[in-house]
Amino acid sequence: MFNAKREVENIVKFIQEYYEKNNLKGAVLGISGGKDSAVAAALFVSALGKENVIGLTLPIHSKEEDKEDAKLISDFYGFRLENIDLTKTYDEFKKNFLVDEKYLVDSDINLKPRLRMAAMYYSAAMYSKLYNKTYIVAGTANKSESYVGYFTKGGDSVRDIEVIADFTVSEVIKLGEVLKVPKKVLYKAPSDGLSGQTDEEKLKVTYREIDDYINQIPINKKSAELIEKYHKNNAHKFKIATYIKKCK
């Protein structure tokens, strides 16, 4: 039986022990306006105190609603929220590639999380020097999206610490309920904020089905085949191929 209250306590202890062992003080994380970043932020505030957590909104032609929801979370938990608008950076970058837009759809979508991650690491280093204490970048991935490879290599796959990566979407929601994440954000339809579609619209399968599949609960055959296809086709994202020398 999944015990969300106990898991919250365990995660908080995990963060505190890791920070103490490695002489760390603060966390920087992207606040998207969705449940994953909200739950992660709440956990870090519980573990480190709101004064040691800095959230970043990183819009790139983004919806204003996402920024508003991010502020809702930062106001609720009391941590600092900074806005770094990367729209002009993104547009300027694209000027280097004089190719028909139809060839750039995937490149455009993946560029956004890569620019955002660069901004987060830049900010973490800056705050570390500014406040003379070490900030690291916290990840906000969940197990369900990771299983189907719904992330960007060199983007949201880069992080220094993960606290919800072993929890399915259903479990993250239960953690959020314990942490009292505002309902408007906790039950919001998951979206990458990049493509204009919800996650489930893009994946053509629901997170409930992905969660059940991971937990070996039977789902319809078509969805199961699609989930396994995503998992296999994105295997290259999970581990970097590395040649091991054979001659000593």
Task: Give the strand tally.
Answer: 4
Could you tell me the strand content as a percent range? 5-15%
Helix content: 40-55%
Radius of gyration: 19 Å
Structural class: alpha/beta
Which overall shape is indicated by the principal axes computed on the Cα atoms? Answer: globular
Care to describe what's here?
The protein has 248 residues and is an alpha/beta fold. The chain has twelve helices and four strands; from the N terminus they run H-E-H-E-H-E-H-H-E-H-H-H-H-H-H-H. The chain has a four-stranded parallel β-sheet, sandwiched between helices. Helix 2 (35-48) packs parallel to helix 3. The radius of gyration is 19 Å and the shape is globular. The mean pLDDT is 95.
List keywords for this structure.
alpha/beta, 4-stranded parallel beta sheet, 52% helix, 248 residues
